[in-house]
Specification:
Blueprint lengths: L5 H8 L5 H13 L1 H19 L1 E5 L5 E5 L7 H4 L1 E2 L5 H13 L28 H12 L3 H9 L6 H13 L3 H9 L8 H17 L3 H12 L4 H8 L4
Antiparallel strand pairs: 1-2, 1-3
Length: 238
């Protein structure tokens, strides 16, 4: 499924989703660091609101905002608090955060290759219009569409295959992307593009859980200079 919207994350925290929608959202959050952090942020907001001033309905029908710390427990006999969320919703939110990991490293930022000079590197004469459409989808950050378009071109051009590998790695296909990028002849690419090919290989190894190999390649890239070296140095350590 797609990333959770702010509203969906808020409804999940407050237990307002249908059972089916909550199950889908919960399964996604377990696998997606970015959405897990969004849900945690919504939960922190909920806790701040609950700790702050809350509405109090008095016996004479008046209501006022009272800070939680100023209302002793005995006052609940005289005043009926309006809960921010129903008890069942609170229980559902609590159950969600029992298993939600709170000490995960920050999600790695996706890295997109520049497309401005890619067409000029092409060695194939056929499929240029399709290549341009694939690069346009890639430039629009639509990795799945870019992968579909670039896969439809029947040539061995390394630039096309490099962008296809990147699009696959960004759209959840690290195994296929790794096979593709490892089949590239790096010597056919200009130096900056060789490092970008190594970056894609690193991302695939990382996402496949091959920690030792990905760590070694990240450290190798970080020791260099240029754009990709900066990406590697900014990566969360694993």
């Amino acid at each position: 499924m797609d990333h959770l919207s702010d509203d969906t994350a808020l409804d999940l925290v407050h237990g307002l989703l249908s059972p089916e929608a909550a199950a889908d959202a919960t399964a996604h959050v377990r696998e997606c660091r970015a959405c897990a952090e969004l849900v945690r942020a919504q939960d922190r907001t909920r806790e701040r609101l609950r700790a702050g001033p809350q509405p109090m309905v008095h016996d004479d029908g008046r209501w006022s905002m009272e800070a939680r710390r100023t209302v002793p427990a005995v006052s609940r006999v005289a005043g009926r608090r309006i809960a921010w969320i129903p008890a069942l919703a609170a229980a559902a939110a609590l159950a969600l955060f029992v298993w939600l990991p709170r000490d995960e490293p920050p999600a790695a930022a996706p890295r997109w290759l520049p497309v401005e000079d890619a067409v000029g590197l092409r060695s194939a004469e056929r499929g240029e219009e399709t290549m341009a459409r694939g690069l346009a989808a890639y430039a629009d950050r639509d990795a799945a569409a870019a992968a579909r378009i670039l896969e439809s071109i029947a040539d061995d051009d390394p630039v096309r295959r490099l962008y296809l590998a990147s699009a696959l790695s960004l759209s959840g296909g690290p195994e296929e992307a790794l096979r593709l990028v490892e089949s590239l002849d790096g010597e056919r690419l200009p130096p900056p593009w060789r490092d970008r090919a190594l970056w894609i290989r690193y991302v695939c190894l990382r996402d496949l859980g091959r920690a030792g190999e990905s760590r070694a390649l990240r450290e190798r890239l970080a020791a260099g200079a240029g754009e990709v070296a900066g990406w590697a140095r900014d990566e969360p350590r694993n």
